[in-house]
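As agreed, record copied across for absentees:
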Amino acid sequence: QPVDPLFYFVSCRMEIQTCRRKGYSYLGFVDPITCNWRLLRDNPNKIFQNLYKYLAVQHDKYKILFPYNFA
């Protein structure tokens, strides 16, 4: 049975908030709502703009995580 996308989104957001509360400022995250497979399929120019925006803002982070599964 596939996982409900809303559940997955909420769990990703909770992990991001936990990392921020613990002070893991060296980690960056890409928002799964604005960069996902549907946008890549339907509007590839928009996804590249979104990815560039996230990477430009978080260029000083040690690691930038994509909090979702592409499978």
Q: What stands out?
A: Strands lie at 27-29, 63-65. The mean pLDDT is 79. Helices lie at 5-21, 37-42, 44-57.
